[in-house]
Amino acid sequence: MTSPDELSDDALETLTDELLCIADTKRVLGNWHILVLPNGRSITDFNAISALTQEELGHTRSLYQLLEDSDTGLDAHQLDVGRDTDEIRYAKTLTEPPQSWVDYIVTSYLVEHAVWNLLRTFEDSAFAELAGLVQKIGEEERYHQMYAEGWLEVLVEEESEEVTQRFAERLPAMYQWLLTGDSGPLVDAGVRTADVADAREAFKSSVTPFLANQGVDVSGLLTDIEVPDSWDASSRRPGHEEPTGRLQQLLATENTEIARAIQ
Q1: What is the DSSP letter of 172?
Q2: What's the first-to-final CA gap in the chain, in angstroms?
Q3: Fewer CB atoms inside 10 A, N or C side of the chain?
Q4: What local confidence, expressed as pLDDT, does residue 151 receive?
Q5: 78: three-class secondary structure by DSSP
Q6: Which residue in 39, 201, 32 sits closest to 109, CA to CA?
Q7: Cβ(185)–Cβ(10) under 8 Å?
């Protein structure tokens, strides 16, 4: 398969939903980086977070452009600057902006691993443009994960109580993000080479051993997590909650339009 126009309507809709959830979550994570940038603990952090911001928002816009080019009827510019916050399909974990440096690192770590494990289900996709983009993003994602992991190794020594608290607050919602999804039509078409269940298990396998080695046991946080009745599968979240504070301002349509206008 060389183009999404060969997909059934149901499969194309599923592909659109999945890529929007991934792209929008990267977009909001990029805005988290913007919020934290002035508060990095060293010049090295300032440089690293600047690079993370550039890459997350670059991934977002590349995914938006792929959607525009894929017969979805979507416009990349409209996706980028033309939607209200209630139309942005980001992971619920990111709704409340970071409350501390520890919260920022913990949440970034979780989001990076969850997003990558969902995106990598499109590795080796029969849709060549998507497979190529996934490969490029994956090359950069590993550095994002290494940055968060490096800081976690420090924080579990210096601020272990808050590390444990923040994982308890942020992890269940991030894992919930991976609980649902009908991969069948995309797997059958060769667009997806693994399903959502594989992504969920890969997420657990990537975060649980690393954290256990740091003395942080999160296994109990991954049990008895259910999908509520209000769950919207197309956005991977239970309805909509408005982002708060400065994050809401960064995502507001009028502000994104100004930002694009002065580039």
Answers
A1: H
A2: 36
A3: C
A4: 96
A5: helix
A6: 32
A7: yes
Q: Which of 190-204, 210-224, 239-253 has the lowest mean pLDDT?
A: 239-253
Domain with residue 112: its CATH number is 1.20.1260.10
Query: What residues make up the domain containing 117?
Result: 4-261
Least confident of 72-81, 111-120, 198-207, 233-242: 233-242
d(CA 167, CA 69): 38
Considering only CA atoms, which of 66, 72, 63, 78 is closest in space to residue 22?
63
**What is the SS3 assignment for 232?**
strand
Mean pLDDT value across residues 98-102:
95
Q: Would you state the pLDDT for residue 262? A: 38
Residue 241 has what DSSP assignment? -
Closest among 22, 218, 238, 214 to 112, alpha carbons compared = 22
**259 vs 123: CA distance, rounded Å:** 32
Would you say the pTM of this structure is higher than 0.85? yes
How many domains is the chain built from? 1
Integer Rg of the chain from CA: 18
Cα–Cα distance, 113 to 161 (Å, whole number) = 22
Q: Are 93 and 174 in contact (CB under 8 A)?
A: yes
Work out the pLDDT band at 261, boundaries 50, 70, 90. Answer: very low
